[in-house]
Predict the 3D structure of the following.
Amino acid sequence: MWVFFFQAEDGIRDAQESRGLGDVYKRQTLGTVLEGAFVLIGTIATLTYFHFGARIKPGQTAGRAIWIDRTAKVGEIFIGITLGALLAGVFSSSLVALVERVSTLVHVILQFFYP
């Protein structure tokens, strides 16, 4: 009995004979592992940014631990980059829609003058 699976990381690939679950991990490159680590660090840092717990020490104001505060700063950077990318996507989509509408309007107006 032959077992085939399709791996769809970068698109549809040719059917390959499966040699078990470990076969997928053997084909990962260092770049894929580093990318996954980057996403993991970003996710943890972003979740740390939303940590609002603080300990009160006698004679001091309430505050977060230093490592939580520094990790939260990294999370703040990740949030800023993410929101900036979303804003750029919304802006470019709006610009494309505007250009399409103006193009249609010009085309309709020119049909009145040049039938």
